[in-house]
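Standup notes, protein team

Yesterday: finished cleaning the Miscanthus lutarioriparius set.
Today: glutamine--fructose-6-phosphate transaminase (isomerizing) structure.
Blockers: none.

Input for glutamine--fructose-6-phosphate transaminase (isomerizing):
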Amino acid sequence: MCGIFAYLNYNVSRERRYILEVLFNGLRRLEYRGYDSSGIALDADGGQVPSPASPYAGAPPLVFRQEGKIENLVQSVYSEVDEKDVNLDTAFSVHAGIAHTRWATHGVPAPRNSHPQSSGAGDEFLVVHNGIITNYEVLKETLTRHGFTFESDTDTEVIPKLAKFVFDKSHDEEGDVTFSQVVMEVMRQLEGAYALIFKSPHYPNELIACKRGSQLILGVNELSGQQNGKSFHDVKTLTTNGKPKELFFSSDLCAIVEHTKNYLALEDNEICHIKDGSVSILKFDPHKEKPASVQRALSVLEMEVEQIKKGSYDHFMQKEIHEQPHSLKTTMRGRLKDGGVLLGGLKEYLKTIRRCRRVVFIGCGTSYNAALAARPFVEELTGIPVTMEVASDLLDRQGPIYREDTAVFVSQSGETADTLMALDYALENGALCVGITNTVGSTLSRKTHCGVHINAGCEIGVASTKAYTSQIVAMAMMALAIGSDQISTQARRETIISGLTNLSSNVSEVLRLDVEMKELASSLIDSESLLVFGRGYNYATALEGALKVKEVALMHSEGMLAGEMKHGPLALVDENLPIIVIATRDACFSKQQSVIQQLLSRKGRLIVMCSRGDASAVCPSGSCRVIEVPQVADCLQPVINIIPLQLLAYHLTVLRGFDVDQPRNLAKMHKKGSETWHKKGSKTYIIASTLSLLLVSLFILALFLARKYGLLSNKPKEEQMIKSFLQKNGNLRTKRYTYAEVKRMSMSFSIKLGQGGFGDVYRGNLSDGRQVAVKLLKDSKGDGEEFMNEVASISKTSHVNVVMLLGFCLEGSKRALIYEYMPNGSLERYAFNRNMNNQNLLNWEKLFDIAVGIARGLEYLHRGCNTRIVHFDIKPHNILLDHDFCPKISDFGLAKLCPNKESAISIAGARGTIGYIAPEVYSKQFGIVSSKSDVYSYGMMVLEMVGARDKNINNADSECSSQYFPQWIYEHLDDYCISISKINGETTEFMRKMIIVGLWCIQVTPTYRPTMTTVVEMLEQSTSNLELPPKVILTW
């Protein structure tokens, strides 16, 4: 995967030689990610002095690119510097340099395809890029028509050329244009995943970074006093005080740790602009012309410089293998307490995981193997079925993921592209997503609902070693935590916890086999293939051991399930093929003994790994080589057994003369391929293009594509906004109708179903005969952005208790929403009209079912959606009932979308209906606005549903749902219980449950209210398990 690094010094003098070494060293720290070429760009002499021969103020920057290792680039730069007579001792008080390591995806490894990529002659815009631009061919074709010529084969080259196009066009039309405005317009045209850094002599001493889908880190080192860069102090916020400072951009924390420990990870669609020593962070929204300013606090890096250095070891892989006793201790530190397991990142979700239908482990490569090793004991300790998915295969098949699933994503870096795409897929399908990663602040850790950091420390070697064993241990602790409520497995859990306590010392012991494994490697150096047989817990060990030999020693090797030996692999056995059989003591030991005998009978060249003292049991004739390892709890044995195989792979690689830390054709992380994936039913660009070709001529299609990316666009702002929305949400079911079509389907709005503050609702029919409800909103003079937000909110939902949006209309000031038709109208009809003839339809059981259904719908909105939705207007009027009286939440006009990781919500004023609005929505003194605000509204509504059932306790003055407040329930609960004692016991249970749940939900302090998940659990419990909350004291 490509690596990005940039360095800007402000008000601190740095010589060009020093700047070069900082850039080179930053690239060296990123070598482990894999690369095949590299490049840098920095300022020339007189970079800040106007030059009449140049189209901008200053001389063109110095750009160097080279194929191969970073040292090739270093030699090339110093050679060119001598030839061009560039003074390396020139000092700069302000300077911005960028650097890059490239992993070829578009175009062969060559200097012309290396980064920085340029806008053309004069290098007016330079870009380093990590990721892939999926629509680069369209952009390239359009830019070519505008006179641009391309020199490389990369997708990246369109970015600086697009920046120049935007700059020239904006400069001609509007005069001055800021660097951030140029970058934002470029982002508006790009599709795909990327992290970008822009440098331009039009904006000297400025850098702009932005990202969407690829990791990018900002490091800050601020100088204290006037010590000219020699003494820096820790800062916790981004300052604009003009103090001397050093600023860094990097794809990874390990490249900045030796410079600073203060950093922040940029979020998707954030733009970080460094100018005059100040750092500005803007949130780019393609639907808005102006970005929002973002205030971010710096985090403190816990990594030490020693972790990114080899120390006394020859290679990083060797160092990381021998670090495993320590890395396992840090994985478990503070988590094994009082005979149990404490995982703070999972604590709030354990109950939800225990209720799930199945656990789905999803990963790639080594991470997949670690999950496979964990599967048996997760099933054993939790009693939950576990399925395994390779991330890319899950996407190819678009395998079923359900809302009742818990999807566990395993990735050392937290940036593995296939794993992240699978994560998006699972989120879209409503599954609870758990992350297991080694990287704090990674995309995986930010996108998942909860998770466990394995804390194995920085892993530089491309071949993962210590992360693998820490992943297994982390998942073992996860299984212990999930299954901690099961009495039947208590003894087993105690055994495993005891084994975890002693695991580090056992790993130290097995590392003493280093010399023995080197001798074994020397005997295998000339072999062409290797088979590894494992079974049970150690099937994963066989796969991982073979993978290590394959990826670093470049020897063909295969991990085999020993139970499948007779079904093909046995045909390969002869006296020349080395075979490793893992036969440590567990439930499969006797079966592995049989496998060994069968292989020996066919003169197999056997190497057997067994528990200490079992040499004679596994190889009584002494005809095979034996590796003895310490015996631990069977489910932890894979941690022990993999280490000799890691050592074997390492020594084989060294003896065969290959690069251990940077194997051929391998990278630590992999970015998204040019072949993008979409879920079923998506209206992909390819499909849209195909349909266009069938319907219109090639000329019209070309014009459409040009306008799509804004280069020839003259459409109204409203149409551009809608198009952007549809491009972003093209996989949704919503259909756009014209106003004439809406008028026709509603028979000119002739059958009115109801009305509200935002407009009227009419009955209508689609062309296929389906009945619909047409909500015609009042005329608005806005550009429709809020309306489209409502469309976005409800279009992201798919739940039996949320109304389905079938289409929408936005035509000038005319706005309409087309919903599925609800024949029984709203809940308010039944909750407040006590003279209805059909009131008996809503008996207590039906009313209780409605309350449960609404709770499940809200739980889905708060936790089940890819993007959390807070409704802000829960009341009977907005609960619709279908023909079976199944409730469906509707009217999302006041809803807010917020990322799942964020709990607090920013709103511009009180929103909702009086009588249902949570106190914190009115005043911040009550707490933060969050999804708990919906919980309050739900509680008010449930208490009204209860109060509407008996005329003796109804407030005579409360005929309107917006005025009722159930304070009387606290004062008259005993009398009320007497009044319902005449009703049968089951009905009493329903009523009591609704009252108690409602009272918990209307607690004044948001933190005292349950989540909607807890509300659902409470409604499913017996009232004997529910306690009354403290009385609400509310002062308005």
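Follow-up from PR in the comments: The chain has six domains: 3-305, 316-501, 508-656, 681-714, 716-820, 828-1025.
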